[in-house]
Amino acid sequence: MAQVPSPTIRARRLRRELRRLRDRTGRTAEEVAKVLGWHRTKVIRFELGHSRVMPKDLPPLLDLYEVSEQERESLTGLLRQARQKGWWSAYGDVLPDDYVGFEAEATSISTFESLYVPGLLQTEEYVRAIVRAGRSTADQDEIDRVVAARLARKALLSRDVPPALWVVLDEAAVRRMVGGPRVMRGQLTRLVEACELPTVEIQVLPFAAGAHAAMGGAFTLLSYDDPSLDPPVIYLSNDNSTLLLEEDRQVTRYRLMFDHLRAKAIDPDRSADLLARIATEVPD
């Protein structure tokens, strides 16, 4: 499967470029808005991603910023790509915020999970079990849509150049009996199989490791091919909310945290052996 440009990434790249161009002119966002006859918050909302840049809005901005013809063509192309729909738009009611759009173009995904097997490695039966547990009032159609959306995400690992996926799993995530013995045995078997993939590394963080830096919860670090264009982001989530962090200091903090987790966890080869052993210990 070929990689398709992510509208989410293109929209982020566009807003970062618009901020860079404004800084180059030495104007404040309020000054730009006043010159263009816009509401004073309109420019800053574009730059923060709180509002979408519309086709009619871009030309006056580029005229004011006195961009070159080459820059204009590039930014117009970014806007066009940003306005396209990714496959995930069809599941906007059941997928978290813009995360899938950020994930879609990542070249490296580093994730720590304390309670669940990561979504990219979940079996369909495991997905159904956790969806039913988390959405007790959902009807069958809603459950099916959530499951379909989560399974569609897994195509990421089948693209022509899949991302490098590094997972640190708390032992609790692989010991908890989700969906019953048959479902859990199948999920553990899937993890063992994933350990053999050349672009996947899995480490188990054992109970014996004691206290660690990420006891506050799960997180994912998404990195991209060209950090100067697309800096890495941190994604935090729980059942009720999601949060994307983009500031350098935030990313540095979580990158260091992930390094500490890897150092405390069992190495990938022994983790694969442990997962296989736990699978055999699941009762019939």
UniProtKB/TrEMBL annotation:
Superkingdom of origin: Bacteria
Name of the protein this chain belongs to: Helix-turn-helix domain-containing protein
SUPFAM superfamilies according to UniProt: lambda repressor-like DNA-binding domains
HTH cro/C1-type domain boundaries: 18-72
InterPro entries assigned to the protein according to its UniProt record, in alphabetical order: Cro/C1-type_HTH (IPR001387), DUF5753 (IPR043917), Lambda_DNA-bd_dom_sf (IPR010982)
Originating organism: Micromonospora humidisoli
Coiled coil (residue ranges): none
